[in-house]
From TrEMBL:
Domain Vps53 N-terminal: 27-437
Name of the protein: VPS53 subunit of GARP complex
Organism: Anser cygnoides (Swan goose)
GO biological process, one term: retrograde transport, endosome to Golgi
Presence of the UniProt keyword Transcription in the record: no
Keyword Membrane: no
Alphabetized InterPro entries for the sequence: Vps53 (IPR039766), Vps53_N (IPR007234)
Keywords (A to Z) from UniProt: Coiled coil
Annotated spans, Disordered: 357-376
UniProt-listed Pfam families: Vps53_N
Top-rank lineage group of the source organism: Eukaryota
Coiled coil regions in record: 83-124
Amino acid sequence: MCKWQTPSLQRTCTTVFPSQDPLDRADFNAVEYINTLFPTEQSLANIDEVVNKIRLKIRRLDDNIRTVVRGQTNVGQDGRQALEEAQKAIQQLFGKIKDIKDKAEKSEQMVKDITRDIKQLDHAKRHLTTSITTLNHLHMLAGGVDSLEAMTRRRQYGEVANLLQGVVNVLEHFNKYMGIPQIRQLSERVKAAQNELGQQILADFEEAFPSQGTKRPGGPSNVLRDACLVANVLDPRIKQEIIKKFIKQHLSEYLVLFQENQDVAWLDKIDRRYAWIKRQLVDYEEKYGRMFPQEWCMTERIAVEFCHVTRTELSKIMRTRAKEIEVKLLLFAIQRTTNFEGLLAKRFSGCTLGDGTVKKPEVPPPSTNPFLEDEAGTETDEIVIEKSDAEKPKKPKAPDNPFHGIVSKCFEPHLYVYIESQDKNLSELIDRFVADFKAQGPPKPNVDEGGAVLPSCADLFVYYKKCMVQCSQLSTGEPMIALTTIFQKYLREYAWKILSGNLPKTTSSSSGLTITSLLKEKEGSEVAKFTLEELCLICSILSTAEYCLATTQQLEEKLKEKVDASLVERINLTGETDTFSIVISNSIQLLVQDLDAACDPALTAMSKMQWQNVEHVGDQSPYVTSVILHIKQNVPIIRDNLASTRKYFTQFCIKFANSFIPKFINHLFKCKPISMVGAEQVRTSSRAMNFVCQIAQDIV
């Protein structure tokens, strides 16, 4: 192989010129090739023919190689000639591009020369237009200032209102020319005219409505009505001063009539305050309604200022006579005040309420609890746990009242009187529940209706509902937190005094039974355990605790809706729901212990029997009969009384099974020694466990 014949070159040649000829292979072997041509001695007879073919092939290859070599001798010369021709073409192209560029520059310069005069004319036209417009504005300004000063002296406010606005608008075009003395002088004259107008209008209103005198008799003059239109264009302070003085003069009589030392100033006659302002607003509409522009909202401003004054005066008098405030009097005053605030919301939009006046109540997040009931004037006797959120219709939320609290905020510092009253009322209510329970006794069993919820439970939550709605109308701040604390206190008292306090006490009377007496008891005989009335009482307490648990959760959500957003985190009734959960757990445990204790003597009898002496296998052992008897007696009663709370009946069955089966197995191991016949008899004990399993299956 030649040095230049590298393996990579061979692979490339094979890829470019594929061939099946053995002579073209890189690993050509002459001996193998000859053996292929002459595999046997007989094939040597054709050697001359093969040699001639090879020679012919060699001559063809030589001719091809000679032709290729001769053809490559002129390639270099042709390539150099083509390169020279390309270079000449490029030079010619560059020359043509340069000529085009020179012609474009000449054309651009020619266009600039042509349009130079046109641009100058355009600039001249624009400057001339601006100058003419400015001169027109200057003429209007100068004439307007002269007319404004003359009309001001003649108090022609109707013409001044329109003229002044035009003069101010024109003067804005000269802001960039204030460096010119004449323009600055006109601007100063306009400001002086505005100041003179303001002082003159204030003087006219002071003359028409003197601070120390009575209201001006008769209707307002057209001069004052036009003066209000001028005040709209002047500094806003002039408008505010007019409004302030007019409202102050309009409410001066109110401050005299309802002074702190007057009888009508106390809370029991608070209706007279609101009746007075209603008359005044009607009187204002008749006499002065057309004098002030409608956008001033003077009627609403008078009502709002009346509310501020009333809140201040009521706060002072309540601080002075705090000891005289009673619950009924306080609620009466709050009710009348909130009614008045609602009337204002219907009549006015609240557009004049400033940022520091009254904070509008924040919109609470959408309610997701079923504790949804009509809050206004509700007279229902029971709070019903409603359907799930997906099934029940959403109650549309009433629009916010922008006037809420504008007067009634003054009562908030004194709401402790209301909270203390509710504390006392709830304490008496709980005591009455306890007394009624003792007087009436436990609820009578009624398996047809299921476990009955104690009536006192519904009464308690109805009272809670009324208190919550009433307090939320009074305040959504700290008083709601104080009321929540009272709710928590009496929820716990109800759980311990009414529910846990009336659960039957467990007894251990089964320990007095003997094995002999147990084995001799007949079907239907009684074992010391809870009576039917006691079982029904436990189930009723369990159902009541479940109702309280669910309703307390709903009460918590409703309280969070009513309270301010900043106080939501302080509403937490988890401790109270845990208390009712404990009552439920204790009730279930009592039911399990009762049935478990009733079955204990039978299991004890099973372990004490002499199983090695049993000679015959009977149908069913006495202790099995006893266990089944107790289960058949207790479970149907509990099931029927817990029909409305199936999940807790399931818990009862599971807990009993978890308690009884290990105990049964433990006693089963105590049955020693035992014979084969006794072992067969023991197998019948599985019937009791099967019965328990069937109960669980029925529940599922």
